Amino acid sequence: MRRVAVTGIGVVAPGGPSREEFWQRIVDGKPAIRRISAFEPSGYRSQIAAEIDFDPARYGLTPRETRRMDRFVQFAVACADEALADSGIEPADRDRVGVSLGSAVGATITLEDEYVVASDHGRDWVVDHRHAMPFLYQALVPSSAAAELSVRYGARGPAAVVSTGCTSGIDALGHALQLIQDGEADVMIAGAADAPISPITVACFDAIRATTPSNDDPEQASRPFDNDRRGFVLGEGAAVLVLEELEHARARGADIYCEVSGYAARANGFHMTGLRPDGFELGVAIADALDQATLNPDDIGYISAHGSGTKQNDRHETAAYKRALGDAARDVPISSIKSVVGHSLGAIGSIEMAACALVIDRGVIPPTANLHTPDPECDLDYTPLVAREARVDHVLSAGSGFGGFQSALVFSRAGAS
Amino acid sequence: MSPRRAVITGLGVVAPTGIGVTGHWEATLAGECRISPVRDFDASALPVRLAGQVDGFEPAEFVENRLAVQTDRWTWLALAATQLGFVDAALDPAKEDPFQLSVVTASASGGNAFGQREIQALWQEGPRQVSAYQSIGWFYAASSGQISIRHKLKGACGVLVADAAGAVEALASARRQIGRGLAAVVTGGTEAPLSPYALACQTSQGTLSGETDPARAYRPFAGDATGHVPGEGGAILVVEELAHARRRGAPQVYAEVAGTASTHDAFHVTDAAPDHTQLARAIRLALERAGAGPGDIGAVFADGAGVPALDRLEAAALREVFGARGVPVAVPKTMTGRLCSGGAALDLAWAAQALSTGIIPPSVNLAGRDDLDLVTGPREAPGLTAALVVARGAGGFNSAAVLRRFDA
């Protein structure tokens, strides 16, 4: 089996508009959450979000590009530029370079903005297409984001958007991994992006009470595993990793962050939003990912949790770790960076994997912010409040999302497995 | 590649040509063009008036009311196609290990009518009027999620977006999952892009046909082609590991999934590539992975954009790989319009049936061409052993799949 290395990382996250700023932010455990500024949130149940002060010019995006690209595409491009520069790659054969970009909701901001104009604020069911912007089809079908990356970098290999809801960011990396394993590409520009902070997205999570109503103290509102958690905090952002066939990376003398050593996905076949408390299917996915990495449960030195901060997720996930790892679940440090950067739907899985690669590289485990009073049913080591130094050779990340999808990905220090 | 072989054992079709594979195939061979005026609203102000629509589709026959209110028409079509596919394959997922089964769909525009209705509610009546199901009805993963839940498919599921090339990507992913140990994967895609806002979004492409005569509106490879007609529906295929299909006594194997490939033009997000290099490369790669030469392919199911510049590129790619008039080229989607995610899925279903019956389905409303052997009526092809499906997505996506006749 061909092996796959991570050789470049780019991140645009709340409070962390670049890889290094992101890393510092999550190590500090300082939540980047505030009252929504993207629109006036009065009248909504949840009025806070983890927002990015995104300046396209900082990333070299031209006005022409920002008119064409939805915000989530701009995030993806900014991250991919950073990741490719970080990798130092100048591929000789761009036929063998592909793109796998995850996104849960695509260009919802553009779709909603343009709808409001074309429908006269929702008055007309039959909208007036003449008011539509020139790139509206690119907003309707989010594979345009993968196309933007392929065009930008001359990548002529396989390209697609992976859209499995909130596991998109893990599954997009898994898709890229499998394409390299099977010899269909040597290099994959892989990651995920979402920019869901729009009225319709906030309203749709309000309607099912998935997001927190704790509007008064935004920085304290994302509280994974804490007894006082009341739901997740919507976020936005992106991360892109350069995945590269291991020998390809070694041959060009690349700096290797880690290897992608195991990926598995399962579905609970149960409910679009509900989770059974036993965490069975997520546990199966984790066990399979470890198996592919040929690791034992006690080899895992850090778990990047899904840790969304909803009542049901955090218990479901705790049960899954116990089921999959047995006694080792009690010893391994776990944390949820959603406490700092919020839950950016499909993007967060890739942002968390960027964090995982940096944990191996930097030897520091970022904390779970706001974890003051643990839920008695979430009784594992969730690394409350303060970062820890630790040499970590193998990290596991778990994701769980609407549709019942459950995914797990393992990164390993190069040569450690 | 993995020695585990992936074969197609069931077809579930919900398309303008029919609901269920039998009626669909009969309408196909009859060459019935199912393009008609947009039915659900007054489209007279739009630059497109015609569409391929699924007539006679009663959601209640396939989707219980409790679920119907949570989902868009796109998902109803997918649930119906999946159910029909399982029945056709005589595969009862309840009798299988759920972790050995999964679903991988192509998705492109999501739950259009559902999403439009809820955004309208938000802007007209306020946030409290948005449905509790908006969060699960609109997003691109809704169909895969609902299919997984309804049939208890707990293996690695997926959703791939590559515009109209997506269903070939999904098939390739299904094959990868079979190679990694799954017993069966339902794959393919559907689309329901005929609601007002979805149609408005599509007009921005500038590739929709403004013709009002259904016989003239979508004529790929014609010199005076005027664009394409959008359509709804698609197909779901049951892709199964060969030994598993044999063990359970599957009633038929339509075809084997022999090879897939995809490339990207990497040229421009809206404009056609300057040449057909990457399209031809996808075709050659798919042939190579199938262990087939151009001479082995007895039918091509063309992408058939209906836009002269894009048609020229496809014709050039086919000439380069197969030679002028080197292979029969069918565009049966001239009967349905372009179904985006559902389109390549339906082409895969047509190709599978062509291989199992030895009949290449017709293209309608097309005249002959000197450089392409266009199949303009049903064509007997008893020696047909392999077929190629070509699919392109807006923005530069090129995909190709080779299906091979299965001789037990």
Automatic annotation (TrEMBL), chain A:
Annotated keywords: Acyltransferase, Transferase
EC number, UniProt record: 2.3.1.179
CC annotations in GO: cytosol
Stored NCBIfam families: PRK07314.1
Enzyme class: transferase
Entry protein name: Beta-ketoacyl-ACP synthase II
GO molecular function, one term: 3-oxoacyl-[acyl-carrier-protein] synthase activity
GO biological process, one term: fatty acid elongation
InterPro entries from the UniProt entry: Beta-ketoacyl_synthase, Ketoacyl_synth_AS, Ketoacyl_synth_C, Ketoacyl_synth_N, PKS_Beta-ketoAc_synthase_dom, Thiolase-like
Domain Ketosynthase family 3 (KS3): 1-413
Family the UniProt entry places it in: Belongs to the thiolase-like superfamily. Beta-ketoacyl-ACP synthases family.
UniProtKB/TrEMBL annotation, chain B:
Molecular function as annotated in GO: 3-oxoacyl-[acyl-carrier-protein] synthase activity
Keyword Transferase: yes
Key word DNA damage present: no
The entry's keywords: Acyltransferase, Transferase
Pfam family, one: ketoacyl-synt
A single BP term in Gene Ontology: fatty acid biosynthetic process
Top-rank lineage group of the source organism: Bacteria
InterPro entries according to UniProt: Beta-ketoacyl_synthase, Ketoacyl_synth_C, Ketoacyl_synth_N, PKS_Beta-ketoAc_synthase_dom, Thiolase-like
PROSITE patterns per record: KS3_2
Family matches, as Gene3D superfamilies: 3.40.47.10
Domain Ketosynthase family 3 (KS3): 3-405
Similarity comment: Belongs to the thiolase-like superfamily. Beta-ketoacyl-ACP synthases family.
Protein name in the entry: Ketosynthase chain-length factor
Source species: Actinomadura litoris
